[in-house]
Structure formats: structure tokens, C-alpha cells
């Protein structure tokens, strides 16, 4: 009998850890949701995220896009952000936070019926800009707002 | 599972419908650690939310882990009447899903 109580326990624990890793890492939504742009959401830079999401990293600053967020966010886990745009035929509104691990936070696909307005709550790791990108008529219009974060909200 | 997982309010004002909704969801990023065990908490976050007015899609939200816990969402759209139904359904990265309906006031 070479299986001591100790080695038996260790083997059991290793198997358990592997099972957890499998559950966390491999259950990606790729197969479940074809529409969800995984590449864009896992991109580490804004350019990569935008290329994967809307096809181009080229954006133009515009007065027709407005980002409404607090100047100082006490709790980075809940930062209320509103994006308003007056551009006609806006197709989508995306919210990016450059300081986060994955800058692309949320993307809202609008329909013909929608107004160019969206409010949501996002997490922010640290003080950073909040960038809104509006896709309309084949162009990417942006606006940003600096938000000071007192307490980071992305785990850790 | 009988706990209510979503709150939706929708109303018409001057031809436009405003919708406010909260979905109750942990929105774990997968980066946070459990303080007592030191193990990472597996990611669980909503990836897609569909908002439908009388069966027609008015807004699709694509979310990453950077959206806050118990996500709140507010948007406006045209063309709805009082008494119409607004349906919101979501799916998360583990395949869990949920839906809620509300009458537009």
C-alpha cells in the first residue's frame, strides 16, 4: 500500500482545483451566444476593442455626443454613466474605460425606434476617463469625461 | 428561485417611452478573490440583454464584466402606447438566463 492518507488527500485536492479551473475558464459564452463579441470584450486596448466591435479604431471627437458622469465617484464599483447623442440614425453606443483590465465595458445596439440616450452603471478600477463611442452613418463619434475614483471597484 | 430577479418600470410621456430596469445579478468579473479561502471567484456576468416592445427589439445591450452588480439600465424609445408590453430578457456567461415583463404606463 503506497497510498498514504496524505497523498490521497493531495490527489483529491489537485483534482478539485482542476475542476474549478475548468468551470471558470472554459465555460466561455462563445458557443452559447454567437452575437456577443468576445474578442472586443477581452481586448486589452481601446483600439483593439473598437476594431473588434465596430471594425475601426478611428474616432472623431464630437459635440453631438455627451457623457454624463460624476466628477468624483466615491465607490468605483458603481459609477452611474449616461450617454446622450443628438446624431440621427445612431446605431450603437459603447462605453469604454481605459483604466479597466478590458476597456470595453458595455455596448448598446440601438434600433430605429430608440432615442440616443442610455444610462447604466459601470465599475471603474481607478481614476480615468469614461469614453463614449457612438456609431452613426458609418462614422465613430466620441466624447469623454474624466471621473475621479476614490475607491476602486474591480475586485482585487 | 422564487425571488424576484428584475424590476422594470416603463411609461409614456410626450410620445416617448422611458424605461428603467434593474436586473438582480452578481456580475462577478472573475478577478475577485474570496477572502476566506483565497480562491478566485469564478466569473459570472450578463453578456446580453434584449429589450422588446410588443415582440419587436428596441435595444440590445452587450455587456462585459465591467458593468456594476445588479445592473441598472435606462433608455428611451418612440412608438409605444399605454398598455403595451415591454419584455427584457438576459443571458449570462454561464448560460443562465432570465426575463421580465412590464406593462407600459
Characterise this structure.
- The complex is a heterodimer of chains A (156) and B (105).
- By secondary structure, chain A is of the alpha+beta class.
- Chain A has three helices and nine strands.
- In chain B, the strands form two sheets. Chain B has a four-stranded antiparallel beta sheet, with no helix packed on it. A three-stranded antiparallel beta sheet of chain B has the order 1-2-5, with no helix packed on it.
- Strand 7 of chain A pairs antiparallel with strand 5 of chain B.
Cα(first) to Cα(last) distance of chain A is 44 Å
Order of neighbouring strands in the sheet with most strands of chain B: 4-3-6-7
CATH topology of chain A: the name is Immunoglobulin-like
CATH structural architecture of chain A: Sandwich
The pLDDT mean of chain B sits at 88
- The total beta strand count of chain A reads 9
Q: What is the radius of gyration of chain A?
A: 21 Å
CATH class of chain B: Mainly Beta
Stretches with pLDDT under 50, minimum 5 residues of chain B: none
Gross morphology of chain A: globular
Give the fraction of residues assigned to helices of chain A.
Answer: 10-25%
Q: Identify the CATH homologous superfamily of chain B.
A: Immunoglobulins
Quantity of strands of chain B, as a count: 7
Q: Kindly state the mean pLDDT of chain A as a whole number?
A: 79
Oligomer: heterodimer
What's the helix-strand series of chain A? HHHEEEEEEEEE
**Beta-strand share of residues of chain A:** 35-45%
DSSP helix count of chain A?
A: 3
Structural class estimated from helices and strands of chain A = alpha+beta
Distance between the termini of chain B: 28 Å
Amino acid at each position: 500500500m503506497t497510498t498514504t492518507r496524505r497523498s490521497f488527500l493531495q490527489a483529491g485536492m489537485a483534482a478539485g482545483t482542476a475542476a474549478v479551473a475548468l468551470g471558470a475558464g472554459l465555460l466561455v459564452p462563445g458557443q452559447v451566444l454567437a452575437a456577443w463579441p468576445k474578442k472586443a470584450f477581452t481586448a486589452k486596448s481601446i483600439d483593439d476593442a473598437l476594431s473588434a466591435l465596430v471594425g475601426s479604431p478611428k474616432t472623431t471627437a464630437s459635440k453631438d455626443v455627451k457623457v454624463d458622469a460624476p466628477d468624483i465617484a466615491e465607490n468605483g464599483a458603481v459609477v452611474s454613466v449616461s450617454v446622450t447623442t443628438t446624431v440621427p440614425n445612431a446605431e450603437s453606443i459603447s462605453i469604454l474605460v481605459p483604466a479597466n483590465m478590458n476597456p470595453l465595458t458595455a455596448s448598446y445596439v440601438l434600433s430605429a425606434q430608440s432615442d440616443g440616450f442610455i444610462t447604466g452603471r459601470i465599475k471603474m478600477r481607478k481614476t480615468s476617463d469614461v469614453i463614449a463611442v457612438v456609431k452613426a452613418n458609418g462614422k465613430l463619434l466620441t466624447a469623454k469625461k474624466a471621473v475621479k475614483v476614490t475607491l476602486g471597484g474591480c475586485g482585487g | 428561485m422564487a425571488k424576484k430577479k428584475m424590476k422594470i418600470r416603463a411609461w409614456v410621456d410626450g410620445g416617448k417611452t422611458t424605461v428603467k430596469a434593474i436586473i438582480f445579478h452578481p456580475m462577478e468579473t472573475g478577478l475577485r478573490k474570496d477572502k476566506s479561502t483565497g480562491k478566485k471567484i469564478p466569473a459570472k456576468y450578463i453578456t446580453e440583454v434584449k429589450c422588446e416592445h410588443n415582440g419587436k427589439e428596441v435595444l440590445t445591450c452587450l455587456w462585459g464584466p465591467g458593468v456594476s452588480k445588479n445592473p441598472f439600465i435606462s433608455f428611451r424609445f418612440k412608438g409605444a402606447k399605454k398598455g403595451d408590453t415591454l419584455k427584457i430578457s438576459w443571458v449570462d456567461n454561464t448560460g443562465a438566463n432570465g426575463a421580465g415583463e412590464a406593462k407600459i404606463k
